[in-house]
Amino acid sequence: MMAASDQVCVDLPILLSSFVDAFVDFSVSGLFFPTNPFPNPNLSAAAAATRIPAPSRLVAIGDLHGDLPKSLQALSLAGLVDPFSARWTGRDAVAVQVGDVLDRGGDELRLLYLLHRLKLDAARAGGALLTLHGNHEIMNACGHFRYATPAGLDEFKRWGFWYRSGLAMKRLCADLDSPRDPFKGVPKSFPGIKEEFWEGIRARIAALRPNGPIAARFLAGNQTVLVIGESVFVHGGLLQKHVDHGLEKINEEVREWITGLNGGQAPAYLRGREGVVWLRNFSDGSDCDCSHLEEVLAMIPGARRMVMGHTIQEQGINEVCGARAIRIDVGLSRGCSNGLPEVLEISDGVKLRILTSNPVYYERLKQDKRPWRPVAEEELEGLGILVPETRPQEVEAKA
Amino acid sequence: MGQAPSAVEDVGEEAPPPPPSNGPSPPPAASSMEDLIAEAMSTTDNDAEESLEAKAQRALECPCVADLRKGPCGIQFSEALVCFIKSTAEEKGSDCVNPFIALQNCIKANPNAFSKDILDAEDTEEEEVQEYKIVPPSWSKESIPKN
Fold first, then answer.
1. B102 neighbors B80 (Cβ within 8 angstroms)
2. What residues 44-63 of chain B have any CB closer than 8 A to a CB of chain A?
3. By C-alpha distance, which of A167, A162, A159 is closest to A184?
4. Of the candidates A274, A306, A398, the residue with the CA atom closest to the CA atom of residue A60
5. B20 to chain A, closest Cα gap in Å
C-alpha cells in the first residue's frame, strides 16, 4: 500500500472540482481563470465601496448590450484592453461600465466572462474595472426576457448544456458533496412559448435568477451607485428620495437581493419610471430639470456631476446643465443603434475628455496619442470643429 | 487595493469543502497535492515534470474518478484531467486546450456520457417545480391560431 497514493486520492476530489469548473468555463467562454485569483475582484475594497477617491485616470463606458466585438472596440479606444488578446492594458486606471451588458445581443455570457477576467487583470495591475447594474440586469434577474435575442437565448442554452455536464461529472465522484442544482424548481415547459426555445428560457432563468450561478458569480459584484471623486455614476439617474434612502444602503440591499439573501422582490427604487436604473430625467434630450439635478448633487458631498448610461445619445457622448449631467450611452451594440464607440475620460479627477472613434475628430491624432474631443459644446465650437447634425453611420466591416 | 470583508457569497468561487475524513488518518509523511507541486517546482525541471506526471497517473487510480473513466468519453476525460493536474500555468489548464476540446467533442457526441442515473434526476425535477412567472421575448411566443 502506497502512502502517497492515499493522500493523492484524498486531495483529488477538490482538484477534480477545479478541473470541471475550468472545463465548463472554457466551454462556455473560451477563457481560463486563475484558480486562486488575487485579489478576488468581488471582495476588493473597491468593489464593496460606494465612494472611492478620484484616481489619476478614470474612464467611463456606456451600455454594451451583448456585443463583444463592439465592446472590445470601446475598451481598446479607451486604452484599457488589447483588442486581440483581450487582456487589460490599462495599468492602474479605473474603469466604470455603467450597466446593460445583457439583452439585445448574443454575446452576453462571453461579455460577462470577459469583464470578470478583466476585473482580475485590472486588480493585479493596481487598477480596477467596476460594473454597475443596468435596468436590463435587473429585468433578467426578475425573469423579464422581453429584450433577449434568439442568439442570446442560444448562448444560455449552451451554457446550460455545459453547466449540467459539469454537474454530472462532479456527481460521479462519490467523494464530492453533491453540487447544488440551479435548475431545481425551474419549469421544463412554458405554455405559450414555442417549444424550441424552452431549453434556452430554462437555462436563462436558472442562470440569472437571484443566486443563480451567473447572477451570483458575475452580477453580485455590481454596484448600483458609485461616487468616484466628484463624479456620481448610475445607470439611469438619482432623485432626492434615492439619496435620502442612502447610497450605501441601496448598494447593499440590491446585492442582498441578487444573491438571494432577501428572498423577495427587487427593491422598489429599482422599478418603475423613477427607478435608479430606469430614470431618463437627466438624459433625454436637452430639456432636463437642471435645478433638480443641482439639488441632488448638493446632497452628495463633493459631487459635481452625474454620469449616466441607459438613454441612447444619437450625437454621441454629451452634457447638459453646465456639464453636471453627462450622458455616455452611445447605442454601441449592433442590437441598438450600432453607435460609434466613445468613452468618457476623467484625468486627475478634474480634466474631462471624450475619447472618440468619430473620424470628424481625427485631426487630433496629429497632436495626441488618442483621438479625443471636449465634453462641453462651447469648447467644441471654440476649436472651430463643426458638430455634425448626425453622426456618420458605422460601416459594417466583414472580418 | 486592500481586502475588505464582503457580504457577498460568491457561489462559483467559494472555498472548496475540506476533504471528507474516511478510514484511517493520513500518514504523517504524506505529501498533499499542493506539497507535491511545490516540491516539484523546487527541483530541476526534468524531475518536476516526472514527479507531476507520476502523481497525475496515480490520481487516475483513485476511486473518485473510477466512474468518470468509464463510458464513451473515459479516455478523453482521463487525458484532459491528467493535463490539468500537470498544468503549472497561472491560469491552470490554459495549456490544455487540445485535450479539453477533445473532451468537448466527445460529450457533444455523447450527451449522456457522464449521466449517473437519468431516471432519478428526472423524478426530482417533476416534483419541485415552482410557480414561475416570466416575460418571454415576443418572437418566442406561440402564434395564436386564427379560427
1. yes
2. 55, 58-59, 61-63
3. A167
4. A306
5. 7
Kindly indicate whether the ipTM for this predicted assembly is greater than 0.85, answering yes or no.
yes
pLDDT in tens, B99-146: 999 999 999 999 999 987 654 454 454 555 667 789 999 999 998 765
Question: Does residue A7 have a pLDDT over 80?
Answer: yes
- Decide if A34 contacts B92 (C-beta within 8 A): yes
Q: Which residues, in sequence order, are CB contacts of B83 under 8 Å at separation 6+?
A: B93, B95, B96, B99, B100
Using a CB-CB cut-off of 8 Å, the residues of chain A touching B91 are 32-34
Does the CB of B19 have a partner CB in chain A at under 8 Å? yes
pTM: 0.85
B107 in contact with chain A, both atoms CB, cutoff 8 A? yes
| Torsion of Cα atoms, A117 then A120 then A122 then A126, to 10° | -170
CB contact (8 A) between residue A37 and residue B13 = yes
Q: At which residue does the C-alpha cell 490599462 appear?
A: A90
Q: Which residues of A are catalytic?
A: 136
pLDDT per residue as tens digits for the range A171-185? 999 999 988 999 999
pLDDT tens digits, residue range A205-228?
999 999 999 999 999 999 999 999
Task: State the cell numbers at B83.
Answer: 493535463
Note the Cα A328 to chain centre separation in Å.
14
